[in-house]
Amino acid sequence: MAKRPIMDVGLVILAGGQGKRLGGQNKAQLVLNEQNFFAHLLAATDGLFAEKILSVASKKEAAEAARNYCLPKNWQITSDQTPSAGPLAGLYAAFLVSKCQMVLLISCDIPFVERSFVNFLFTCVDDQYQCFVPFTTDGRLHPLCAIYDRSVLPVLREQLEAGDFKMHNFLQKLAKKEISLAASGFGDDIVFNVNTPEDLAKAQQIAAGFKNTANRQKLPIIAVCGSKNSGKTTFLTNLIPYLKRAGLKVLVVKHDAHDFTPDVPDTDSFILREAGADEVAIYSQNHFAVFGHGQNLVLEDALSHLGEGDIILLEGGKNSPYPKIEILRAANNPNPVADPQTLLALCTDVQKPPLRVTVFGLTDYKKVAELILARFKNH
Questions:
Q1: At the topology level of CATH, where does 6-208 sit?
Q2: Torsion sign over Cα 360, 366, 368, 371
Q3: What does the alpha-carbon distance between residue 64 and residue 28 come to, in Å, rounded to a whole number?
Q4: Taking the mean position of all CA atoms in its chain, how far away is CA 139?
Q5: Cα distance between residue 285 and residue 375, in whole Å
Q6: Do 232 and 253 meet the contact criterion of CB atoms below 8 Å apart?
Q7: Which CA distances in Å does 279 have to 237, 263, 268?
Q8: Please, what are the averages of pLDDT over each run of 10 residues along the chain (379 residues)?
Q9: Pairing mode, if any, of strands 9-14 and 324-328?
């Protein structure tokens, strides 16, 4: 697949919304961590695009935009030709002045876009699709943080003339590449958008940084999965030293599909837990452990007890939303068990793997470590 150069993609920031559900506030000027949303987007995209466009709703707003947004001189400002038509009108107006084959469209109410995420989206671009749209773990597409090819112009024009301003209907007519955020290593927060006071409150929580679980989830989480007895533990024990040599502090969480006894019966920790303690921590001069219990526990419950680190490796988790390395042995089970959308690579001795993904041998630990380091270096 032919990759396009970054400079053949223009940047379009949508700032034409009326913010009605926020009491008419200008969403681009909302502030998190002493920086407004628009300033954050400027910083996250600085130097990546030769062409930059601010799309606003009206000519009156366009006249005020350069002053209100403190725009550098190399920005262009467009206004919608179709009133009250929403993002479709903004994208159409931007394409009319853009000289690029593609544009990255970002709404100004998405305050957590990172430079590394923009670079990641570029790696997903090829010549087979008209748009490249990320989707979150709930399956929802996010078309206001996506890349569009100029070939969508006739569809845009047709919908605007028909008075159909729904983004969903627009996407249905395009050849689109859906990009899994789970497989990318980025969390859903990267495309979180603010439409209501409740959204703004949540954004403020995200910006402040959650403790424990939320902080852990900002680390890259990679699941090493496979069928039973595929060799997940062996693979991890050989992979970890390569990541350690690269200077990473590696955290490991093991998932057990069957319940287990976390500490040995008749030990003090077991007796205390049986007496009703919710958690029992044990420490010595060189070690510590925490034993707890609960109902319907999930991975995040384990993450909340981890210390500081650089990367989390999950042993198992084939049904988790996280990016995966799957171990596939011909003698064990030659059929992959993980969702192909979330696979980074297969490590296998199967001669003709059934999936079109990156393939390594069962002992290519160093190559897998290099893949992980390259993919998540910006984290």
A1: Spore Coat Polysaccharide Biosynthesis Protein SpsA; Chain A (3.90.550)
A2: negative
A3: 14
A4: 12
A5: 37
A6: no
A7: 28, 12, 13
A8: 56 80 76 83 85 88 72 84 90 95 94 86 86 91 96 96 94 93 78 90 76 50 90 93 92 72 70 68 68 64 72 85 88 85 87 81 94 74
A9: unpaired
Q: Taking the model in full, what pTM does it have?
A: 0.59
Write out the two tokens for 304. Answer: 């909340």
For residue 218, give the amino acid letter. K
Q: What is the DSSP letter of 141?
A: B
What per-residue confidence (pLDDT) applies to 132? 94
| SS3 (DSSP) at 308 | coil
Neighbouring C-beta atoms of residue 80, cutoff 10 Å: 25
346 neighbors 315 (Cβ within 8 angstroms): no
Q: Which fold has domain 213-264+294-375?
A: Rossmann fold (3.40.50)
Q: Give me the residues paired with residue 131 across strands.
A: 148, 176
Question: Residue 137: how many CA atoms within 13 Å on its side-chain side?
Answer: 14
**Over 349-362, what HEC string results?**
CCCCCCCCCEEECC
Instruction: Yes or no: say if 25 and 19 are a contact pair by the CB < 8 Å rule.
Output: yes
What integer pLDDT is reported at residue 211 of this predicted model?
38
CB 109 within 8 A of CB 18: no
DSSP 8-state symbol, 32:
E
C-alpha 30, offset from chain centre: 23
pLDDT value at residue 5: 41
Distance (Å, rounded) from C-alpha 62 to C-alpha 136? 33
d(CA 78, CA 55): 5
* Spans of all domains in the chain: 6-208, 213-264+294-375
pLDDT value at position 216?
A: 41
Residue 170 three-state SS: helix
| 180 Cα distance to chain centroid | 7
Q: Where are the beta strands (DSSP E) in 162-301?
A: 176-180, 221-226, 250-254, 279-283, 288-292
Structure-token pair, residue 183: 């497989």
